[in-house]
Design brief:
GO terms for molecular function: sigma factor activity. Keywords: Sigma factor, Transcription, Transcription regulation. InterPro entries: RNA_pol_sigma-70-like (IPR039425), RNA_pol_sigma-70_dom (IPR014284), RNA_pol_sigma70_r2 (IPR007627), RNA_pol_sigma_r2 (IPR013325), RNA_pol_sigma_r3/r4-like (IPR013324), WH-like_DNA-bd_sf (IPR036388). This protein has helices at residues 3-28, 33-49, 59-80, 101-119, 123-133, 138-145, 149-171, 177-182. It has 183 residues and is mainly alpha-helical. Among the domains are: 9-82, Rna Polymerase Sigma Factor, Chain: A, CATH 1.10.1740; 121-174. The longest helix has 26 residues, at 3-28.
Length: 183
């Protein structure tokens, strides 16, 4: 067996055994959850791509040293850039927070599907569902619309499940006939 075949297996084994401890170690050094996860993954990647891992007796210690060094590098870089927020805040600037054109198109399509499906719901459950969407409690719906509490709850649940099933059906991509036969 060559080292190239064994090394990924060793790193995978090391990952399974120590990823939680490594994450905890990085959090103890001031990293937020997301940043600790990123640094952990980078440490494992560096270990995996390291050309000389055969002579390392304690790979766990080596992995933690890589992670500690990466953490120091990140902190130094932030200090050079004059960043004042701490690593705990875990803020990363996003250039544009508005949804993509694709996301907006998908949302419009989903809204059209829900609107069409909602038109199929009988008037009584529709009005109970809309009242709930407006923020009324089930007790308020009972008082205003004269619908028993359990019935109002049941109708909201049924309408919600109906709309969800319609949306789920629309999201499914049917397999071509040749692929269905293989499954």
């Amino acid at each position: 067996m060559t080292n190239e075949i064994a090394r990924p297996f060793d790193v995978a084994l090391l990952f399974g055994k120590h990823r939680v401890d490594l994450h905890r170690f990085l959090k103890s050094r001031g990293f937020a959850d997301d940043a600790a996860a990123d640094v952990s993954q980078e440490a494992f990647l560096r270990l995996l791509t390291s050309p000389q891992t055969d002579g390392i007796r304690n790979k766990k210690a080596y992995l933690f040293r890589i992670a500690a060094n990466l953490g120091v590098d990140i902190q130094r870089k932030q200090a050079r850039e004059g960043r004042v927020e701490s690593l705990d805040e875990g803020r990363f600037e996003i250039a544009d927070e508005s949804p993509s054109v694709e996301r907006m198109l998908i949302s419009r399509q989903e809204l059209a599907i829900l609107s069409k499906a909602f038109d199929e719901v009988p008037h009584g459950p529709q009005s109970v569902f809309l009242a709930r969407l407006e923020g009324l409690t089930f007790a308020e719906i009972e008082r205003r619309q004269g619908v028993p509490l359990k019935t109002a709850y049941s109708q909201v649940m049924k309408v919600t499940l109906f709309l969800k099933s319609r949306l789920d059906d629309a999201r499914e991509i049917p397999l071509p006939l040749s692929e269905k036969q293989q499954v």
